[in-house]
Amino acid sequence: MNDEIGLLAIKSGDSLDFKHIKNYESRGISIEDLIRDCLDKYPTTKDFILRIGTDDLLSDLEYNFFVTNKNYIKAFPCFLYHSWPETGVNDYSHVINSFIDTKPESNKVGWIGALTNDSRKKFNEIAKESQNNYCEAITNIWIRENPKELYKNTPTYLTYQQQIDKWKYLIDFRGRGWSARTKILLNTPRIVFIVDREHEEFWYEYIKPWVHYVPVKEDLSDLEKNYEKIESDTELQEFIKTNQREFAKKYLTREAALLRIKKIIEEHEDS
Fold first, then answer.
1. pLDDT in tens, 26-56
2. pLDDT of 143 higher than 80
3. What is the DSSP annotation of 157-224?
4. Do 136 and 106 meet the contact criterion of CB atoms below 8 Å apart?
5. Can you tell me the mean pLDDT for 258-270?
6. In a domain, 22, yes or no
7. No. of H helices and E strands in the chain?
8. Same structural domain for residues 168 and 48?
9. Full residue range of the structural domain in which residue 52 is found
């Protein structure tokens, strides 16, 4: 594990220890807290060693925050189910339960983030076209003067509630690897457009296009067509919003993450 970015969780009898290796920001601490919370709520006599990659990219460790092969039991719930204080999410549960369904400033599909891949760059280009009237992009570059609270010194930063207030629809892209924020967006009162990606968290096993979200191809070739489809059909809007809300309650809460960790521990076999 010396070359990997991750966390080792070791349970032996009543002892529970953690070894943090080059974890980025507060990710390791958040995963440690999730595992502790899981064992407090769902005690077990089982001993285990969990090797969890915490990088944006896929590691060779047994578990990562996402999988690319549909083997979802190897997708460990990501740190954001606990918190991401560097970006203003000090408590995941508090954030997702605080959203207010305000009237959006526009009917556009909106996104804010860094231009870290071709899909994000393409969306940014589309949004800048002079004739465009259906999407908007804000490029956000973290100011790293205070690495523990990046959002406080970043003038382009928007809270999730501000995004809700601004746009009727939200869109999510993968980042360098997977996207941690997808689950927060799906917890908002806004319909979410999800751009195709190979990096999938555990709950992708259950989510369905045009039931829980609006699908978009990675090259964005169907973005405008799918926008027009959802924008012109109020029944479809209500159908997706209802199903999205129920899906989020079932799979995208901290309790859902704890239950998934419990399942992982139950099925885990040390090699």
1. 999 999 999 999 999 999 999 999 999 999 9
2. no
3. ---HHHHHHHEEEEEE---SS--TTHHHHHTSSSEEEEE--S-B-GGGGT--BTTTBEEE-TT-TTHH
4. yes
5. 95
6. yes
7. 8, 8
8. no
9. 6-87+254-267
Distances in Å between the Cα of 151 and the Cα atoms of 5, 31, 84, 112, 230 are 24, 22, 11, 13, 32
Q: How far apart are CA 154 and CA 143, in angstroms?
A: 5
Burial group, residue 69, by CB count within 10 angstroms (0-12, 13-18, 19+): exposed
* Cβ pair 213, 252 in contact under 8 A: no
The answer to whether residue 1 is domain-embedded is no
- Do 136 and 244 lie in one domain? The reply is yes
Q: In the predicted model, is pLDDT for residue 1 greater than 50?
A: no
154 domain residue, yes or no: yes
Q: Would you state the pLDDT for residue 2?
A: 47
pTM score above 0.70: yes
* Residue 47 and residue 27 share a domain: yes
Residue 24 scores a pLDDT above 60: yes
Q: What's the confidence (pLDDT) of residue 20? A: 94
Q: Is the same domain home to 204 and 142?
A: yes
Mean pLDDT score of the chain, rounded to an integer?
Answer: 94
* Pair type for strands 135-139 and 106-113: parallel
The domain tally of the chain equals 2
Q: Do 225 and 147 fall within a single domain?
A: yes
- Looking at residue 27, its pLDDT comes to 95
Same domain, 213 and 192: yes
Q: Quick one: which H or E segment has residue 123?
A: helix 118-128
Within this chain, do residues 78 and 106 fall inside the same structural domain, yes or no? no
